[in-house]
């Protein structure tokens, strides 16, 4: 392990570089494919609702299998699970470009989702294993920034390549194979941390966590993804289109700006950690969520909507690295990969529930009331948490 009080990102670390590139590969899973859904639907002869399953079957495996990937990493080592996950992820993605039936696409995307649960869990686990203190916060912030940068850039990449054919963007998944080889050859793998199996591992890994703290951290993580995927990625596009008649390009610019806002704050995670405790960063981030969502609720036009989404993005940049730091700190080293797998499962659930919840509320009472409720809950939670951690 390494530590430094500066709060700067430890770019020289090979582990950090492998983790960041692995994360960037994993983020391709949704953001690259989303712009392709209409083209795929037309090519294989399915409706929009069926086409959305291409995303759903990718995200669902993470809810169940992320803890399994973590348990395997604790038992057999980080390197084999990461390398295997990257390899399966890339091969399934590449194979989509070669099939022509909708069922085959869904099957391969589900395989990608299984592999992605290992990629995301192991990336943050490696950083938790390698760094401590503010350097850990800086490394986790860089990882969160990588996710946000991918979320901002990859949809544009998918759209550009998709203009040639819907299959072409899937060739990008080949990039995971050299990353897997790099990890295989250059990633040091310490001895496995546990030999426990099945229910014994699950019982002991969960049993070592401080119950109240763990419940609070996982609830905060779940809610953060509900607000991001439901409030920003679902409600904001519909609000911009329905209330302000904004075209898809303008909506994409707003969402990309929010993602870059997240990246900018996340890259400052180490420096922020020298001034505020992780729990305070989470509380401040929730205040930003609340202010941002309430700004969107009140927005008279697209510019104010953009300002609100920038505030939510900034809050996300504070919350996500801080939560990962809290998870790493409360998990014992022998169970860290499994605990991070549980964290990935929780955020996958939030990312799945959020769009459904906000869309259901939007269809019944409108998106502005849904944003009002979400923003109010976030702001109250943030203020109370700041008061308690002051």
From TrEMBL:
Domain Major facilitator superfamily (MFS) profile: 15-390
UniProt keywords, alphabetically: Cell membrane, Membrane, Transmembrane, Transmembrane helix
InterPro entries: MFS (IPR011701), MFS_dom (IPR020846), MFS_Efflux_Transporters (IPR050189), MFS_trans_sf (IPR036259), Sugar_transporter_CS (IPR005829), Tet-R_TetA/multi-R_MdtG-like (IPR001958)
Pfam families xrefs: MFS_1 (PF07690)
Membrane-crossing residue ranges in chain numbering: 18-41, 53-73, 80-100, 106-128, 140-160, 166-184, 217-241, 247-267, 279-299, 305-327, 339-361, 367-387
Cell compartment(s), UniProt: Cell membrane
Membrane-topology annotation of the record: Multi-pass membrane protein
Protein name: MFS transporter
């Amino acid at each position: 392990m390494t530590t430094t009080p500066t709060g700067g990102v430890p770019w020289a670390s090979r582990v950090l570089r492998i983790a960041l590139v692995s994360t960037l590969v994993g983020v391709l899973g949704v953001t690259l494919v989303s712009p392709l859904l209409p083209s795929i639907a037309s090519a294989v002869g399915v409706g929009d609702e069926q086409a959305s399953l291409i995303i759903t079957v990718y995200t669902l495996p993470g809810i169940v299998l992320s803890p399994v990937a973590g348990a395997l990493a604790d038992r057999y080592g980080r390197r084999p699970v990461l390398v295997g996950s990257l390899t399966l992820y890339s091969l399934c993605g590449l194979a989509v470009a070669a099939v022509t039936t909708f069922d085959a696409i869904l099957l391969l995307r589900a395989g990608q989702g299984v592999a992605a649960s290992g990629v995301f869990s192991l990336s943050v686990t490696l950083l938790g294993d390698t760094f401590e203190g503010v350097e850990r916060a800086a490394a986790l912030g860089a990882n969160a920034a990588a996710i946000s940068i991918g979320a901002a850039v990859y949809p544009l990449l998918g759209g550009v390549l998709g203009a040639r054919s819907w299959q072409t963007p899937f060739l990008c998944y080949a990039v995971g194979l050299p990353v897997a080889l790099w990890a295989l050859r250059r990633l040091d793998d310490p001895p496995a941390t546990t030999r426990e199996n099945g229910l014994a591992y699950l019982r002991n890994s969960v049993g070592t966590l401080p119950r109240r703290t763990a419940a609070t951290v996982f609830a905060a993580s779940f809610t953060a993804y509900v607000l991001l995927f439901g409030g920003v990625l679902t409600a904001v596009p519909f609000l911009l289109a329905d209330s302000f008649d904004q075209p898809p390009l303008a909506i994409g610019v707003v969402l990309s700006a929010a993602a870059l806002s997240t990246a900018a704050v996340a890259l400052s995670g180490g420096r922020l950690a020298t001034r505020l405790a992780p729990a305070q960063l989470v509380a401040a981030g929730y205040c930003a969520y609340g202010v941002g969502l309430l700004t969107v609720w009140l927005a008279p036009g697209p510019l104010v909507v953009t300002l609100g989404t920038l505030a939510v993005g900034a809050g996300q940049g504070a919350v996500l690295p801080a939560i990962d730091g809290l998870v790493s700190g409360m998990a014992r080293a022998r169970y860290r990969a499994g605990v991070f797998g549980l964290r990935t499962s929780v955020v996958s659930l939030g990312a799945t529930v959020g769009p459904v919840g906000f869309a259901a509320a939007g269809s019944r009472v409108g998106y502005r009331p849904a944003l009002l409720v979400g923003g109010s809950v976030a702001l109250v939670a943030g203020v109370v948490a700041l008061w308690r951690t002051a």
